[in-house]
């Protein structure tokens, strides 16, 4: 079946955010074919985006915060065992997704932040790299504020294996010009990523503040548990958030989702967004439905 039918019986299946997710998915498929590990596939696939110096919103090439420092957020989840790991505000590491995986696999914890995450990475043998030249151009950076919301394009990747295993990962440098220490939705399990071995998985990209206040990815998975298709679940999650949020549909949020039957889908605010779908023999970039105020009744916040 073609991916445009929003369902495939081909496994593994990888779905990720944005057109740049296609190269990441392609690598994930390659890694799966050589290792048979869905977690390796997700980690190495996301690693491609993290290494892409031209990507200004993932990895060390990302836009720095308001004091000129790149702080990275990442998370990973394995449906089997319902395991998760994440890092936030991590500095100087090329592959935060790999550190998140180590947190999951080698510590009794789920999340490490800031200097603690960096020290853990060092202990685990990760190289600490100096920021790229120009990253700390304070004059230029200080002229902006977090409200400029520049450069927010995270990679979230979710995958379904031939044995029904569901895994996912997420990595970002977050909002450009954010306040130091700001953590977005991407490393928050249930926010920017959620995996449920009984149901499927979801991931988010966009303005994290508008995702994490609503446990967005968790909500998408819960809607799928209630019987919605992945696309319906993404759409209904955005509608629900827009109904409650004072900003209505002016949210800049997007979701991707897969379920255990190999159905997949996405939705975003405004004109929607592009996402990538890959399985053996096919790797495509699709456009999600977009949602605006005409798609739902009154929006803009709960009233008493
Ligand atoms: C964040 N959600 O830190 C991330 C950024 C992002 O598309 O996804 N941008 O808020």
Strand % is: 15-25%
Number of helical runs?
A: 8
The name CATH uses for the topology is Glutamine Phosphoribosylpyrophosphate, subunit 1, domain 1
The percentage helix is 25-40%
The number of strands is: 13
Widest beta sheet: strand line-up: 4-3-2-6-5-1-11-12
Biggest sheet record: 8 strands, mixed
Mean pLDDT: 91
CATH class: Alpha Beta
The CATH architecture classification is 4-Layer Sandwich
- CATH homologous superfamily label: (Glycosyl)asparaginase
Shape descriptor reads: globular
* Cα distance spanning the termini: 48 Å
Class from secondary-structure proportions = alpha+beta
Total number of domains:
1
Low-confidence stretches: 141-151
Distinct bound molecules? N-hydroxy-L-asparagine
- Rg, Cα atoms, Å: 18 Å
SSE pattern: EHHEEHEHHEEEEHHHEEEEE
Layout of SSEs?
Elements: E1 13-17, H1 21-35, H2 38-51, E2 72-78, E3 83-90, H3 96-106, E4 111-113, H4 114-123, H5 138-142, E5 155-160, E6 166-172, E7 193-196, E8 200-206, H6 209-212, H7 216-225, H8 230-244, E9 253-259, E10 264-269, E11 274-279, E12 282-287, E13 290-291
Parallel strand pairs: 3-4, 10-13
Antiparallel strand pairs: 1-5, 1-11, 2-3, 2-6, 5-6, 7-8, 8-9, 9-10, 11-12
Bound molecules: N-hydroxy-L-asparagine (SD4).
Task: Characterise this structure.
This protein has 304 residues and is α+β, with helices and mostly antiparallel strands. The longest helix is centred in the N-terminal third of the chain and has 15 residues, at 21-35. The protein is built from 8 helices and 13 strands. Strands 4-3-2-6-5-1-11-12 form an 8-stranded mixed sheet. The protein has a 5-stranded mixed sheet with strand order 7-8-9-10-13, covered by helices on one side. Helix 1 (21-35) runs antiparallel to helix 2 (38-51). The chain has one domain (13-84, 133-292): (Glycosyl)asparaginase (Glutamine Phosphoribosylpyrophosphate, subunit 1, domain 1). The termini are far apart. Bound molecules: N-hydroxy-L-asparagine. N-hydroxy-L-asparagine is lined by residues 57, 152-154, 172, 174-175, 184-186, 192, 205-208.
């Amino acid at each position: 079946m073609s991916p445009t039918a929003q369902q495939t019986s081909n496994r593994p299946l990888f779905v990720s955010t944005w057109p740049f997710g296609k190269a990441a998915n392609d690598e994930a498929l390659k890694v799966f074919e050589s290792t048979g590990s869905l977690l390796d596939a997700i980690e190495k696939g996301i690693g491609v985006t993290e290494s892409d110096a031209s990507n200004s919103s993932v990895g060390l090439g990302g836009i720095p915060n308001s004091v000129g420092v790149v702080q990275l957020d990442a998370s990973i989840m394995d449906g089997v065992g319902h395991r998760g790991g994440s890092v936030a505000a991590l500095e100087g590491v090329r592959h935060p997704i790999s550190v998140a995986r180590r947190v999951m696999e080698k510590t009794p914890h789920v999340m490490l932040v800031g200097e603690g995450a960096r020290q853990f990475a060092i202990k685990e043998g990760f190289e600490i790299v100096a920021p790229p030249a120009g990253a700390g151009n304070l004059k230029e950076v200080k002229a902006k504020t977090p409200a400029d919301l520049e450069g927010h394009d995270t990679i979230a990747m979710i995958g379904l294996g031939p044995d029904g295993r569901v895994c996912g990962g997420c990595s970002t440098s977050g909002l450009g010009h954010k306040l130091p220490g700001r953590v977005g939705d991407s490393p928050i399990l249930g926010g920017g990523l959620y995996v449920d071995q009984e149901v499927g998985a979801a991931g988010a990209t966009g303005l994290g503040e508008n995702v994490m206040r609503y446990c967005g990815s968790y909500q998408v998975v819960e809607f799928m548990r209630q019987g919605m298709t992945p696309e319906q679940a993404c759409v209904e999650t955005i509608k629900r958030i827009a109904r409650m949020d004072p900003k209505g549909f002016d949210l800049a949020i997007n979701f991707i989702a897969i379920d255990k039957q190999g159905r997949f889908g996405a939705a975003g605010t405004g004109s929607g967004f592009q996402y990538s779908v890959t399985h053996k023999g096919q790797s495509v970039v699709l456009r999600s439905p977009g949602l605006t105020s005409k798609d739902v009744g009154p929006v803009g916040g709960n009233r008493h």
